[in-house]
């Protein structure tokens, strides 16, 4: 039986060879003219317009190339065309893993290829035009032994062919744009088109130029559709734009399913849609968009290269439903060569496709032309010869793919292709590492029967109205750099990018219910209409921002956060959390689109919502009473000077009196006498200088110098003491009773905080005893608690935010009794809360900055919070009269000390000099010398005024002697 099968196989092979020889299939690689023929496969979907256009372009490219290089080229490319017939295999394996897809290919090859080979042996393979991509590729490689393959252009088809090319080392030159197909991961893949991810920056620049903060991605569920999504998402994230939703549609989606998805999108706030689809699905999709009334004013639609480049092939009814759409497509420079080629191409295309009425050149056809040209150049440069494949060692059970072998010329041809560069019809055609390098993009607006150019995008200059820009231009995306745009609904107003969801006519703004501090937020209901009336500082700021500083209208209504009986439904945290919930978690509670009130921006709240920039100052401080009045203190006269200053002053009084006594003791009768008198003189003289009542006459100039300096010191001290004491006796001391939170904790004092505030958690974090915390809600309760004090059922301090403290202290009833200490904790201030990613946050934050910098903010503050602290009792008395310290008089005491010590040292030096004989005597011991010096110091010394008195007795004695002698 086996011999019979082998015999049948041999007969089949002989029959195939005989048929091939009859049809004149060349076996050798050279023709009669000596030119080397290089077989190249072409796999295109000729039922698709892009395939038809590319087929004609590829043929014309080789004809043009060899016509210009007929004297230099020794090789000729022979094309072997196959029709891929759509994307049947990908549809059959959709949703499968890579392993499952390869198993599907293997199964189809094993099961379907043997019958196909029998059929193929009966016809000329050159005329075969209806083979699926894997079959076509295997046929071209096994039976034709092509050295390269042009196509296919559909990404899902190209994936299988590229995998076969990697295994056989045959270059695959495809216009597949999906980023999931990478030349880096497929060494024998040459992308003859721009990578789909290259358009991402231009799309992002458009969104950034118009300031849109949310977009919705819509794409088809294929490799082509999914490949670009990660790049778009990351790029939008870089400009702080959030992809709010991703809508994925199958190629086989029904019209009802498309409408259902569109109505879902319509209920969302986002009105900017970035769509990435093939023309087949996009035609059906935009027809339904028009039907769903989503091509009206306020919507923005952006389409990608794959669709924008093929608008000319779409039905007029579809184009009519796309009016106002913005798209990007590769920019093709207009040249004479291109215009001449288009004329020749139209004539050729009409001859080859007489049944096609509407046809236009597209960028994919130009890329196909340039790819074929690049391949012809690479074949000529590489010097490849007759095609040969290295066959595998004969083994049993080999698959049909394994029997093909490996191309010997493929690596050489690949090397010539990878970095080729020339000026083609599509512009600069530069293949770098197997990837066509991107160029500029043209931005168009769908108007009328087609598109209209509104600008360009380049990597160097960004968005611009033209390409002739100076090299020094700094790129900042700006909508003014684009031409006039007609938006959907024939509107010339730029869509703001979002709207209230369908069915919601107003922004639902939640406001808190407060028992106190109604100056910030107050909610009432009209007795007749039951309409909510919200007033207060926060409400007025919000109204000013929304009504006058936003560039567009936002209708809103205030909804109180209350229970069925009109009371507060929870804390501020609960109110903010309602935005995050997005649904009712209690029967009487409701979710909100925003929260307006005195809501402090905190980290734990920002996890659930986004806050605008703050419109109030930040921080938490203490309200504490002033200390008791010291004017009733019997010892208040001691308070002007600190104890260290008192002691230092007393020491200098004694020391100065001692120095003066030492200097005056020998020459001044008033400083001599009994010991008690002399000690009393030391204290009396220095202290008498306080009131300048000293009557003792000083004789020595050294003592006079010491006293002059000391009197100046006394003058400054007495003046300062008088001023400080006067201040204490005449001005009320506004000194806080508590200055440090640690004192409150150590003393275990009771402290207060506002009800339903985050301050409670702050105090617990600062190690306050929970049992010592009391909550209050009104100014009157604050006053009552602080007046009683911690020991009488009240509190020693109340912790509150700065805006409320300033409101409290601006009241004349309270400003004379209490003061603020701190801030002890910094916060970000109060802001308006919105859902995460809300596009309103940025615009309202910008508006808040405008409001806070205008006079209108001052008027709102004066209306609700007053003009600030204007307490008469505190006016001019806020400086606390503290006691004077030694540090304030260090300089004076240093001068006095230097003067006294200098005079004392100089006096002792003179005294020792006058009694040097006694000091230098060798006959006496040290003790005897000290006693002698002490006696000498205690003896009275004649001063200059007594010299005449001592001289007169000498004259009498001299006269008596004379008289006696006479």
TrEMBL record:
GO terms for molecular function: ligand-gated monoatomic ion channel activity. Residues 938-966 are annotated as: Disordered. It is a multi-pass membrane protein. Keywords: Disulfide bond, Glycoprotein, Ion channel, Ion transport, Ligand-gated ion channel, Membrane, Receptor, Signal, Transmembrane, Transmembrane helix, Transport. It is found in: Membrane. Residues 938-948 have a biased composition (Basic and acidic residues). The chain crosses the membrane at residues 12-29, 645-663, 675-693, 705-723, 891-913. It comes from the Eukaryota. Residues 949-958 have a biased composition (Basic residues). Its main location: membrane. SUPFAM superfamilies: Periplasmic binding protein-like I, Periplasmic binding protein-like II. One of its GO terms (cellular component) is membrane. Residues 506-867 form the Ionotropic glutamate receptor C-terminal domain. Disulfide bonds join 815-871. Belongs to the glutamate-gated ion channel (TC 1.A.10.1) family. Glutamate-gated receptor that probably acts as a non-selective cation channel. May be involved in light-signal transduction and calcium homeostasis via the regulation of calcium influx into cells. May form heteromers. This is Glutamate receptor. It comes from Rhododendron griersonianum.
